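Limitations

Structures in this collection are predictions, not experimental determinations, and the ligand pose is part of the prediction. Treat each record accordingly. The example that follows, with phenylalanine as the small molecule, is included so readers can see exactly what is and is not provided: the inputs are given verbatim, and the output is the predicted complex.
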Amino acid sequence: MKEKRSHFTGSIGFVLAAAGSAVGLGNLWRFPYLAAQHGGGIFIFIYIIMALTFGFALLMTEIAIGRKTKQSAITAYGKLNKKFAPLGYLGLLIPAMILPYYCVIGGWVMKYTILFVSGKGVRAAGEDYFTGYISQEWTPLLFFLLFLFLTLLVILGGVQKGIERMSKILMPVLFVITIIICCYVVTLDGAVEGVKYYLLPDIKKCSLVTICAALGQLFFSMSIAMGIMVSYGSYVKREINLTKAVNQIEIFDTLIALMAGLMIIPAVYVFSGEEGLKSGGPGLMFMTLPRVFEQMPAGQIIGALFFVLVLLAAVTSSISILEASVSMFMDKWHFSRKRAAVILVVFSILLGVPSSLGNGAWSHITVLGMDFLTFFDFFTNSILMPLLALGTCILIGWVTKTEVIEEEITRNGETFFRRGLYRLMIKYLCPVLLVVILVCYTLAQFGVINM
Ligand code: PHE
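Predicted complex:
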């Protein structure tokens, strides 16, 4: 049965939900590490420039496509131009492949949050605690399922009562926790050196690879080409000012990334030195940071706050990625929300189990030399997502022409200040930069370049 399309109640609900999607593990475990690796201030500068141009153009396009067509990715592209309907299937594949492994990681975060909140965080500082934990069979699986069901519960609540309501509660909490930890960390003894290391530009560490790293990070961080922003855009009411909303989402996401750097880099710098900043991702979050919290005064409290923050960021992102897939099943095959969500959860369990076991019992099974989780992450982020975004740029820049989006942006008489820039980006620069991401990230995965 076809259900009536849901809406966010207003601009704030939409902005917080979209920011909830954008602010995720990428902001917390990848941005600080990349900034540290690529010359601090100079990386930040490049990142902000890219956000204002590349990020802005792609985010705007996806949200406007959603609002214009009132469809999720699977049917939206075909509605704009029949020949581009296959892009919709790519739009379905991406979130469906990301959700399972993202929830596996979400499960790890949940385990660490419980550990720290219950006062047992010091255990996580042990040498092989993390590798030992993820190679177990049952506990990581259990937490994966818990995290997935938590996500499912919110989605079953629907757009307003589930997603919007949760985002309105969780995002302000996330923001406040970030500020508290930042303030604490920068006042630690010796933190000033770390802050300098983070903020002062070190041109020597900046190369072409830096630009590539900033681009890829931005792309992932703004939840572009995951089908999410098209779906969320389709829930935005016509009277809302899109430019303003997109600016607010970008500011929120970038601010949290910058503050994540401000809390993580000085802390690691003080207690583990530059060495500690050599790894990002799970290594930084689950190995380096617990050791930092062990040595930091009041580290167990800060650690608990930190993992609550990570959990909030991860949950609001996984909500958005499940919603993206659910809305596609509802639009294309007219499933009810409940049926779509349950089918997707079953599918996620099927794909998530190998991703979880791939670190232990099934570690001998690899795809292209990667364990399951790494493979899904690589295949979606480095291959499928740049391809979908590239297809979107060709469709909007060259087939339907950018006017389709411009009309949607200015439909209530708003002025579109960055119109010229927008056209230039979508037609020429974004496609080139997307190919750069595709090539660089593939080379980096196979160890040809270091990123
Ligand atoms: N922007 C998210 C992040 O930084 C990316 C993401 C969104 C990943 C939704 C998965 C699901 O983590």
